[in-house]
Amino acid sequence: MQVDFGHTRQKTVDNKEAKLNFIAFVLSHSRQKYKEWLDRPFTTRDVIQAHENAFKWYGGMTNEIVYDQDSLIIVSENGGDLILTKEFQQYRESRGINLRVCRKADPESKGRIENVVGFIKQNYAKHRVFHNIDSWNEQGWEWLNRTGNYKIHNTTKKRPFEVFLLEKQHLKPVSQNIDIQNNYEISIARCVHKDNTIRYQSNRYSLPLGTYNKYEKVCIKETETKELVIYIPDTGEIIAKHSIPEGKGMLIKDKKHSRDRTKGVGAFINTVAERFEDKELAFKYLEKVREKNPRYIKDQLKSSCAKQKVSITKYGLKR
After folding, report:
1. Res 106 pLDDT > 70
2. What transmembrane ranges does the database entry give (predicted)?
3. What CATH number has the domain bearing residue 231?
């Protein structure tokens, strides 16, 4: 099975334009197809739900699923070692998916699904007027039965649905559907840009100063309260939170992100250390705190100011 994404721009009933996104599946032997559309960008949870629907459509799953290097599924590929988005990794483990990722600029490894994406755009979507996403998907499934899986394939010279009747016998059975709503959160990987921002739904969101130098990608989650939570994929550490606005083309910026939060910390440490009876030991201790928890050093220094008389030897530091 191969999986890929596509998008089109459709004329609407009120003569406007709508950008639609779809995910497509194809079985490598029979060329039996499945697809789903959304009138918004896909999230990782949407991708997982589409997989569940596809497995139900096919009546099983294949031994291997081939993907493009999409940020909804893959965070990075390092020398053949895949780092998946947190939610898709959980899903992969729960479903026992054996996946393979296409190399960049390697059209032969994903030729079948790329042909399907083009076929959907040219045969189904072209010149079709968009009313709403529900009717668009219903028409799409009717098209699969009528054309997409019925029309004789140019390579196999057979109708996909006829070959599928034989291929279906070799699919792995799928257990009861997974509860996507309760088990998987919305999560998307985003590239960090040089100006320490990420792009999401036509807006830019700020990140702490220096993020670009540390991380190539971060992950985001959109909460039910329309808040964008940005975190490090490997550790889950939250580095930023923003309210999601209604408009487009905006820069949503946290003022704290434009400041170097380590600037002046050294002077602050010296000032605080001077307030303790054993200044040298206090300085050594505070430097260790700074090294271990750089994000919280200022808060801890402020707390230390309120405890000027306390001896620092209880923390186990030695000269």
Report:
1. no
2. none
3. 2.30.30
How far is Cα 121 from Cα 199, in angstroms, rounded to an integer?
Answer: 26
Q: Name the token pair of 216.
A: 């190539």
Q: How does 16-30 read in b/e, with b if 16+ C-beta sit within 10 Å?
A: eebebbbbbbbbebb
Q: Quick one: 6 and 128 in the same domain?
A: yes
Q: Is the dihedral of CA 147, 149, 153, 157 positive or negative?
A: negative
Worst-scoring range by mean pLDDT, 194-198, 281-285, 301-305?
301-305
Tokens of 71: 């940020």
**Tell me, what DSSP letter sits at residue 296?**
G
- Round to whole Å and give the CA distance between 84 and 293: 28
Q: Are residues 26 and 100 in the same domain?
A: yes
Considering the domain architecture, whether residues 216 and 99 belong to the same structural domain is answered as no
pLDDT for residue 287: 78
pTM of the predicted model, to two decimals? 0.56
Q: Which residues pair with 200 in a beta bridge?
A: 203
Residue range of the domain that includes 44: 2-182
- What pLDDT does residue 289 have? 79
Checking if the pLDDT of 316 tops 50, the result is no
Q: Do 218 and 292 fall into the same domain?
A: no
Tokens of 147: 């054309």
Same domain (yes/no): 234, 104: no
